[in-house]
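Researcher: We plan to redesign the surface later, but first we want a full-length starting point. Tokens attached.
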């Protein structure tokens, strides 16, 4: 299965099948689940969520998309606009993956707490 991508400022109210909408301004992409169930899949871009790669012709998202909260529980990669199906995860794998994601987010956001802004640095120095 191949998707087409559209760069948009705002996400449209109606999503077309087989289209992934990318909003750089809002750092997110959205598409209908590739299994055909019709659920909307939102993939926010951040250091702890998804990474968007645009090579000038096609897009890729990293990591894989696991729709664990949907009845379908579909799991796939989007690479160069192509959907590559991934193995279904067990309940245990999903739980472990969620814990790992929470741990990564916690570590990422904790590291910023100790940083001082340039203004704080200047106040200390002068």
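Model: Full-length starting sequence:
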């Amino acid at each position: 299965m191949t998707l087409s991508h559209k760069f948009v400022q705002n996400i449209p109210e109606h999503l077309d099948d087989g289209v992934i909408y990318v909003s750089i301004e809002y750092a997110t992409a959205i598409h209908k689940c590739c299994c055909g169930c019709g659920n909307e899949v939102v993939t926010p871009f951040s250091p702890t969520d998804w990474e968007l790669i645009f090579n000038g012709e096609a897009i890729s998202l990293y990591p894989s998309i696991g729709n664990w909260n949907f009845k379908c529980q579909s799991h796939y990669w989007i690479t160069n606009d192509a959907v590559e199906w991934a193995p279904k995860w067990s309940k245990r794998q999903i739980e472990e993956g969620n814990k790992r994601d929470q741990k990564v987010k916690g570590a990422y956001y904790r590291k910023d707490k100790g940083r001082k802004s340039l203004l704080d640095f200047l106040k200390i120095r002068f």
